């Protein structure tokens, strides 16, 4: 678990030398994500992990990984590293590996209908996490001693095998006075609500000198000039919506499976929810895009195969047809203490299931 604790009675000035040997390239979407998260929590710490590529002394930051449900924010500390982040990284990683494979197979050619650019050979690299950015709520625009110590622990941990780490610090500045060090360069500033602004300084540490933290100046590029990564899907970044959508179905004794699948030439996987009851002769597949409920879901009806009779001759019912490689993922979504569906609003998916259950004579 990544954590930052910055309970300081005052902020002291510290010197951070510049490091011009490392090149840091950052997508505009990353800056936008930092801006939005910082303004959303102006008075407490918050943060996200950084996702990208590494090629020697060049780090390319392509996206951020939030921790929607397990993050712990307070005025002086931040804890990251829940199952949500692991799930989101797997979403990115799966898409990225498919892009790498597709780029190798179609080198120099375009795939009809594919709305994305293939990777050049020099960017055929594994996706990785390069630390995390976090916000200091008291205007301290540099790493605390706790931050510095944590960077040292990451770089010297043999299990993590990290060579270099990024640790940007964001602040939301309401006053003219700024804690910090002389000569510091504010890389990016945005006007925020209430007359303040968000400032981001980018810091870097390397395994060769894990005690030393450097100040680096990133190059900001439009998203379209950097490799493609998929948008974050609704079922991973909005856990509460997923709970509200599926809990009534669980309470209604339906059997559910959730997974992802490619459809056509769309590089972004669909989020598929299989809904079944043992007595049904058919099962339902709810197919949603990554931006549900902005986009409408689709429903597919899947024929099931009858099971052979049991040893005592009684009818055994129907099997759930393995039409998708779906992995049950409901245990981490619905802990026992959260399983009570009372008071939860019924959303579109449960209404679709109820509608199809009534319409089809051989379902239900």
In brief:
The chain is an alpha+beta fold and about 375 residues long. The protein has helices spanning about 30-40, 85-105, 145-155, 235, 240-250, 350-360; strands at about 1-5, 25, 45-55, 60-65, 70-75, 75-80, 130-135, 165, 170-175, 190, 195-205, 215, 220, 255-260, 270-275, 280-290, 300-305.
Order of secondary-structure elements? EEHEEEEHEHEEEEEEHHEEEEH
- Name the structural class: alpha+beta
Classified in CATH, the superfamily of the largest domain is Cytidine Deaminase, domain 2
| E-strand count | 17
Describe this protein's structure.
By secondary structure, this protein is of the alpha+beta class. The chain folds into two domains: 2-225, Cytidine Deaminase, domain 2; 234-359, no CATH class. The protein is 21% helix and 26% strand. The chain contains six helices and 17 strands. The protein has helices at 28-40, 83-105, 145-156, 234-237, 239-251, 348-359, and strands at 2-5, 23-27, 47-55, 58-65, 72-73, 77-80, 128-136, 164-166, 169-173, 188-191, 197-206, 214-216, 219-221, 255-261, 270-276, 282-288, 298-303. The strands form three sheets. Strands 2, 3, 4, 7, 8, 9, 10, 11, 12 and 13 form a ten-stranded mixed β-sheet that branches. The protein has a four-stranded antiparallel β-sheet with strand order 14-15-16-17, covered by helices on one side. Residues 1-13, 177-190 and 316-346 have low confidence and may be disordered.
